[in-house]
Amino acid sequence: MRQGVVYINTNFSSVSGFDAERDSMRTCLLSPLPSLPFVSSQPVPLPFPMAHGTTTLAFVFQGGVLAAADTRSSCSGLVACPASQKILPIHSHLVGTTSGTSADCALWKRILSRELRLYQLRNGRRLSTSGAAKLLSHMLHPFKGTELCVAATLCGWDDHTSLSGPSLFYVCSDGSRLQGTLFSVGSGSPYAYSILDQGVQWGLTVAEATSIAREAVYRATHRDAYSGNCVDVYHVTSQGWTRRTREDLKEEYYREKESRRQTHEAEKKML
Amino acid sequence: LGLKMLSAQNFGESGKMKEYHYAGPTEHRFSPYAFNGGTVLAVAGEDFAIVASDTRLSEGYSIHSRDSPKCYKLTDTTVLGCSGFHGDCLTLTKIIDARLKMYKHSNNKTMTSGAIAAMLSTILYSRRFFPYYVYNIIGGLDEQGKGAVYSFDPVGSYQRDTYKAGGSASAMLQPLLDNQIGFKNMEGVEHVPLTKDKAVQLVKDVFVSAAERDVYTGDALRICIVTKEGIEEQNIPLRKD
């Protein structure tokens, strides 16, 4: 449905109907969705780098879904933002971790929230995590092959379908959509996987799970240059998502160093 | 200017001269971007916001203008600072002004700082595959009258901050602001809240430092102080070399 030039066109009932206008001024005034690339053969070389590099993780356990991420947003060697938000709530029972280009992740999450809200209004129920992951995957598909880079895990609680409970999906802009019980995404993910594979199991308590997630992000930020600063932890249950206070990992590093020093002193004394 | 020594092709990212030695045949393509320099800074306080920019417009080794400020007044409570490619800055501010008017006519109220920030994010992202080469920082008052600063990357990723520096000298100024306003990387320091006069003095000192060490920053400093009384502007000279 096209609207007149005077009004801002924010009402997209069909997500696939991109405005094919080539005139960028009118595009800005009419359609908020990005149209397909202007130059099809040779992309314009960019004079600036995009923000990349992260550690995010999510896993499922008996108490729901736990998602954790660092907060460093880097831009080819410079820390663009030491306090960015990489876990974005999409609705009351769904959060998404973001990895890749931060602008792509933020905007596509916003578009996903809008589409899920429209679904909820039209159908009287929330879309399942599986459905939300499929929707995101299909929305990103027309941009496959372009430089769009989104690697997100959707962590949610479904309570209306026959399979209710915690649910975790990994969606990537190259087209992958995978269901799983444990995912870690980003440049620091190998380090996080080593901690998670050792400790994550279904029967963990909330406190144990939080502690493992925090430890995994801490170890990854210690070794990966592009991850760092603080850690955010979100917990999704049947009541919705809750957020743990953001914690600065610098304190943790000094606490651990101090306790190591003390055990070292104690050992020396015993000899 | 296309094929002479000082063409845009000789300049890599952020306008710094590329290595000038023979590296084999090179392809020269027209680049739609240019880097015009300039630094922008914004600080948010309890009931005020400050947006400051230098006024030098340069390209390569030349200075096009010494009086081209990069602060644009959007509403009575919001100022936008944009640096990078001047052509995109001009077009972007025209589009924002048009969208502000459209909003005013449709909704019979002025856009708030938070709404302008969200709108700017979608405007920048609509050009995801041929971006506006502009580093934006919005400074203003939010609905509660508190100072707000929103910083953007060229493709629309944004968040609310207390202070942010953008543009050619941002890598030099941001650590200084982290230390003086955020009290970061210091031990045992009392966190005093920032007053308006101290903030203005800090901004002046910070730009004087930037003009010393960054070639693209200098000439003059334009400070816009946003309070509930309105927007006050100050002009301070900087070094012109």
UniProtKB/TrEMBL annotation, chain A:
Pfam family of this protein, just one? Answer: Proteasome
Grouped into one coarse class, the protein's main location is cytoplasm
UniProt keyword list: Cytoplasm, Hydrolase, Nucleus, Protease, Proteasome, Threonine protease, Zymogen
Record's Gene Ontology CC terms? cytoplasm; nucleus; proteasome core complex
**What Gene Ontology molecular-function terms does this entry list?**
threonine-type endopeptidase activity
As its record notes, the protein acts as a catalyst of: Cleavage of peptide bonds with very broad specificity
Q: Mind telling me which InterPro entries this protein's record contains?
A: Ntn_hydrolases_N, Pept_T1A_subB, Proteasome_bsu_CS, Proteasome_sua/b, Proteasome_suB-type
List the active-site residues.
Answer: T54
Q: Which residues form the signal peptide?
A: none
Gene Ontology biological process terms from the UniProt entry: proteolysis involved in protein catabolic process
Where it sits in the cell: the answer is: Cytoplasm; Nucleus
What job does the chain carry out? Component of the proteasome, a multicatalytic proteinase complex which is characterized by its ability to cleave peptides with Arg, Phe, Tyr, Leu, and Glu adjacent to the leaving group at neutral or slightly basic pH. The proteasome has an ATP-dependent proteolytic activity. The proteasome is a multicatalytic proteinase complex which is characterized by its ability to cleave peptides with Arg, Phe, Tyr, Leu, and Glu adjacent to the leaving group at neutral or slightly basic pH. The proteasome has an ATP-dependent proteolytic activity. This subunit is involved in antigen processing to generate class I binding peptides.
Q: Which family, according to the similarity comment?
A: Belongs to the peptidase T1B family.
Please give the subunit comment from the record: The 26S proteasome consists of a 20S proteasome core and two 19S regulatory subunits. The 20S proteasome core is composed of 28 subunits that are arranged in four stacked rings, resulting in a barrel-shaped structure. The two end rings are each formed by seven alpha subunits, and the two central rings are each formed by seven beta subunits. The catalytic chamber with the active sites is on the inside of the barrel. Incorporated instead of PSMB5 and PSMB8. Component of the proteasome complex.
According to UniProt, the name of this protein is Proteasome subunit beta
In its UniProt entry, the species of origin is given as: Oryzias sinensis
UniProtKB/TrEMBL annotation, chain B:
Q: Which domain of life is it from?
A: Eukaryota
Q: Name one GO cellular component term.
A: nucleus
| GO BP field | brain development; cellular response to ethanol; proteolysis involved in protein catabolic process
Principal subcellular localization: cytoplasm
Sorted alphabetically, the keyword list is: Cytoplasm, Nucleus, Proteasome
Give the InterPro entries listed for this entry: Ntn_hydrolases_N, Proteasome_bsu_CS, Proteasome_sua/b, Proteasome_suB-type
Gene3D superfamilies in the record: Glutamine Phosphoribosylpyrophosphate, subunit 1, domain 1
Give the Pfam families listed for this entry.
Proteasome
Localization annotation: Cytoplasm; Nucleus
Described purpose of this protein according to its UniProt entry = Component of the proteasome, a multicatalytic proteinase complex which is characterized by its ability to cleave peptides with Arg, Phe, Tyr, Leu, and Glu adjacent to the leaving group at neutral or slightly basic pH. The proteasome has an ATP-dependent proteolytic activity.
Quaternary structure, per UniProt, is: Component of the proteasome complex.
Give the family per the record.
Belongs to the peptidase T1B family.
Spell out the protein name for this chain. Proteasome subunit beta
Query: Where is the organism placed in the taxonomic lineage, from the top?
Result: Eukaryota, Metazoa, Chordata, Craniata, Vertebrata
